[in-house]
Amino acid sequence: MKIGILGAGNIGGNLGKLWAETGHEVFFAVRSPQSDKVQAILNSITANFHTGTIEEAVTFADVILLSIHWQNVPEILTQIQDIITDKILIDSTNRMIPPPADTTGSAAGDIARLLPTAKIIKAFNTLGANNLTNLQFGAENASTFICGDDTEAKSIVTQLAQEIGFDVVDVGLLNTAPLIESLAKLWVQISRQYGRETAFKLLKR
């Protein structure tokens, strides 16, 4: 599968690396490809990957991961809104600032409103990036909680998550995104007391 990564930071860089290692073709869109941080990530990838502009990454990909600081999201959405038609966009962002007055109730919902032709799936936002390369906690693997309105898109994202070791919990339609986004804030609070080597897991019996 062709995957575009918008942002090669801790989340996007690690997820892109993992997907490249499982055989997917990954395109990193980075503004400063020569920065030490980006170079460290790219130099650690042995599989085939590409780098280029945001527009090139979106045009290339079947699935796009949005993994940038929230303050940059509106600008990026404006850049891609005309070329993302009918593609899957995974929203892994966390909006830690107060929402705008006209919010739909979640960051993912606001993204969906701005990109009405894309298939928005919320995922990969409820644990620290340090855990992505080791999702196992004892006998259990960390959960990622996902939601979205398109069943096929959720199935594809579920597969991508499971391939790299996640237990996937489908929470429902995109209107449940506020619940998932609140878990990110809870994780930040918990990590301050218990450290970053922590993750959420849904236990079933």
Automatic annotation (TrEMBL):
For whether the record's keyword set contains Membrane, the answer is: no
Record-annotated Pyrroline-5-carboxylate reductase catalytic N-terminal domain positions: 2-94
Q: InterPro entries under this entry?
A: NAD(P)-bd_dom_sf, P5C_Rdtase_cat_N, STEAP_metalloreductase
Q: Which SUPFAM superfamilies match?
A: NAD(P)-binding Rossmann-fold domains
Entry keywords, A to Z:
Oxidoreductase
The name of this protein is NADPH-dependent F420 reductase
Q: Which organism is it from?
A: Okeanomitos corallinicola TIOX110
